[in-house]
Amino acid sequence: MTTMECREIFAQLSEYLDGELPPDVCEQISGHIEDCPPCVEFVESLKKTVGLCKGMAVEVEAAPRPLPEELKARLMAALRQG
Ligand SMILES: [Zn+2]
Question: pTM of the prediction?
Answer without folding.
Answer: 0.54
